[in-house]
Amino acid sequence: xxxxxxxxxxxxxxxxVFDLDSAQLESNYRKLQVLWHPDRFVSESDNKRRQAVxxxxxxxxxxxxxxxxxxxxxxxxxxxxxxxxxxKQEELxxxxxxxxxxxRETLQKCGVENNEPGLQAxxxxxxxxxxxxxxxCVDSLGSGDYSKAKMLFHRLQFLYKLTQEIRxxxxxxxxx
Amino acid sequence: MALLKIAxxxxxxxxxxxxxxxxxxxxxxxxxxxxxxxxxxxARVLELDGARLLPSIVHYxxxxxxxxxxxxxxxxxxxxxxxxxxxxxxxxVSHQLSYKLEDSTTSGMPRIVTPSGHVSPVQVSAxxxxxxxxxxxxxxxxxxxxxxxxxxxxxxxxxREATRDAARLAGLNVLxxxxxxxxxxxxxxxxKKLQGTIIIYDLGGGTFDVSLMKLQRxxxxxxxxxxxxxxxxxxxxRAIAQWILQQGKLQTPQGxxxxxxxxxxxAAKHKxxxxxxxxxxxxxxxxxxxxxxxxxLIRPMILKTLKSCSRVLRDGDITSDELTDVVLVGGSTRxxxxxxxxxxxxxxxxxxxxxxxxxxxxGAALQADVLVGNxxxxxxxxxxxxxxxxxxxTMGGLMEKIIPRNTTIPVARAQEFTTFRDGQTVMALHVLQxxxxxxxxxxxxxxxxxxxxxxxxxxxARIRVTFQVDADGLLEVKAEEMVTGVHSSVVxxxxxxLLDSDIEKMLVEARSAVESDVKTRTLREKQxxxxxxxxxxxxxxxxxxxxxxxxxxxxxxxxxxxxxAEAAGGNDGDLIERLTHQLNQVSQEFAARxxxxxxxxxxxxHAIDELD
Lengths: 176, 612
Hints:
Chain A is mainly α. Chain A is built from 7 helices and no strands. The relative contact order of chain B is 0.11.
């Protein structure tokens, strides 16, 4: 067995870039689904049906990975031999760590105080930072600066996690 | 016993029907079930004894049973709403039943105590499926080639597996288990040319589903789904019944009397669809139920459904302004107050131009016609999701999600675990489904053990657990030890399902009743499988052998095919199976090359298409 990751860009017939054309991604995904969906193999042999299930599982995985900017970036780094799981001390960014703490404090306070408008404001701020960082990713990858991209990946990872926590708190405040 | 489909040779068979494949769509509902067929994009619901809805009730008496609405045997006990018990344990049933349950020794599902013995909910469902399928076969003029059965989108693994078992027990070839809202969307998409981003609000007799879907040019994509598998019109009836008891200061009746009270409550509910108030009589008590009172009784349940709606909108990251349409499905959306509440919630008049009772069966029939291979017009593609996250128990009683909810199926995900004791050779795995963090709050689907792990120090073993969910939403879990290459793997069935031995036993009983034989059937299945295989490979060879294979490879494949073809003509099932497997092995590389070529072809030269 080889440990090289499957190239999801190639699988979906797309160029290996972060700044992906999402319409093209969807359309290629649909085409492959039409080709391999198990519904097309219902009266074929067990073997063929199993293949269809495996193939569409892979296509679905590729699509979900590439659709999410965070997972797309991670996959891109992975394909370029960069392990995102390990972060060295010198790769940490002091300012950003400080900002992280501040956001977390705000989040916690909103929870304690049942402050829904405050939470919305935090959400807006985090989302705008998120889109700025994504633009920065496009630039650094465009110029082949993978170590910068790796740092940005870890920022994005934190920001996405934070948006999820904001949403979870929102759920609680709105009593879902 | 009506468990097996019985061929009715020649009856009503036309020339055209003989060429077409026969398939039906079945909506197996909590209170009513329907069967429909389709041809070239036009579907119709079949009538059974003059009615389109078959009550999902089986009446059991000492010497047999009958299905549906016909007046039962004088001594009969009626089993209704069995869909609520599918894939469920006794502790899950919180409402009062008009029959007794008893624990089973072989399955997590309880048995229903009837005058003709204990029956499983799966058996009861199989009887209903049997009647519908037999009727479909009669109308279509011969054995069915396949059926599509609908299930609530929010059905979990255990409930889907139980439905699948019921179909097997009824001797049906299931082309697909289809989510009810998705089926409804297919009907609206094909019949009413509905497109865009839509919400399907499906309130049935015992289940509620809401799906957010994107419909465009033959593609039906589920974005998010939510619901409650024990909330429906039945609960409205119960609320009315409780109100009657309270008003009349009456004791809660048992058994048949309870069923009678529920029937009166249901009748009153139906009356209020047409009129503002109605008189209700029960025993010596008489009173008036008006719409306002009805709404106050059912409002908490309606609010619950609307809460699911907002969650689905949030999951799909969409607001109700962005929706193209809201569609009402399910008979209980006729209840006064439901439509009004949905309209207010989404701020638009909901759509229900197709009969809410029939639309699911119609969609199922349309899809069955396509799946069985009767091709016409534009190709449709259904992309469904799993409704609840799937995962595994980890240290500290926590649920670790492996596949999150609303993931498009089919899907395969793997995760690695390790041993925590030196020399550990067995690892217990607990498969779970649900959204909560703690194990007791999730549904336990199965427990199994991976044995014969080579003894190593703690943390050295690498156990890869793979979850595979197929297009029906059914799960298969495998565990393998990766380091030493010793691969043990297990396929689990949810613990609520029937054991294969149970099914086998029931099938044997059913077959002996119609003088059939398990052995012939399995042999025939193996022969068919072998023939299909050869046929498919022949087609593949004709298309791609010259470009993808060298002479030696071609010869090897041809030889394996010839040997299998010869065996398939004989009666040795084991030999056929072995040779089929062999051919599989030989053709694997060819299949892989074709797959790659297919992908290249599908994606090449399509840039221009994108411009339209």
